[in-house]
Amino acid sequence: MKKIINAPENYTDEMLRGIYASFPDKVKYAAGDLRCYCTARKKDGKVAIITGGGTGHLPLFLGYVGEGLIDGCGVGGVFQSPSAEQIYHIAKEVEAGAGVLFLYGNYTGDVMNFDMASELLEMDDIATVSLAGADDVLSSSNVEARRGVAGIYFMYKAAGAKAAGMGSLEEVAAAAKKAGDNVRTVGFALTPCVIPEVGRSNFELAENEMAFGMGIHGEPGIWNGPVKTADELAAEAIDEILKDMPLAEGDEAALLINGLGATSIEELYILNNSVRERLAAKGVKVYRSWTGEYATSMEMMGASISVCKVDEELKGYFDYPVDTPFICQR
After folding, report:
1. I want to staple 74 with a disulfide (CB 3.0 to 4.6 A). Which of 1, 52, 119, 259 is the partner?
2. Domain extent for 110
3. What CATH number should be reported for the domain holding residue 192?
4. Which residue is catalytic, options 35, 46, 57, 92?
5. Is residue 2 one of the residues assigned to a domain?
């Protein structure tokens, strides 16, 4: 294992100390717990949006805490869920009189702990709504059982914009749901990653082998085989997405090309070009795109492609300016 760390068991907390020290005007922690990550710029009367998940996916999840996006994040250990108590303390810190939207990936531990936090907040007469991102097309044919991966970015954007415009809790949740209903993601890995406390790869791939449909925690994909070209990967990914979410000729979509941690930005833009060409061949126009690291998996080499069908409402949400220590859009 080659990592720039001290003790593996301190990986998450030492990372958080570095972030807090670097951005004291933007983020802080609540209840004396480093893992209760909150905005330092609470806005009275605004719906509070809270997410959470394991370390190892930066900028997902905590990287989206800031202006125009979300207000707090429960931080778990590497690939581990945050606790219900952490989520509760974050909510108590950032709730500003308009209720709380919980918005997180569709994983068993996260669902359970956010549900428990909701029950605790209900006892304090704080209204909550929960939504889970479930955009990973190849993880299940059952939409409700799908994993939440990089496509949750569009849900954050929609919810954050609506909340910044002082929408009600129901309106903010509806905006996030609309984005979630219209986004699909397909990912693929070229290498495994190493969890610090384990000290070895979380799965194995041969030298010229890749995994198509791989999850961000190393969950198995739908096939392992020889590494394909960017054009081939774009074609297969878009075909899988369009089978699940038909886009008609003349439709518009937002595009997210996401690196999993160790793929160069040059390669991601090559993939962006390949995906655009594939969509254009289907008569689908790309309204705008984002390319970079938005939901990583430690130092895994690979990428994911997220496509979100847009209308004028979603365009407005996606164009809204945001500013966090990790994400800036003007």
Report:
1. 52
2. 8-180+321-329
3. 3.30.1180.20
4. 57
5. no
User: Does the active-site annotation cover 217?
Assistant: yes
Strands 100-105 and 48-55: parallel
Q: Which of 46, 147, 178, 217 is catalytic?
A: 217
What pTM, to 2 d.p., does this model score? 0.98
Residues 175 and 187 in one domain: no
Residue 1 lies in a domain: no
The predicted pLDDT at position 163 comes to 98
Whether 41 and 96 share a structural domain: yes
130 and 205 both lie in a single domain: no
User: Running along the chain, 330 residues long, what does each successive block of 10 average in pLDDT?
Assistant: 94 98 98 98 98 98 98 98 98 98 98 98 98 98 96 98 98 98 98 92 92 95 97 98 95 98 98 98 98 97 98 98 93
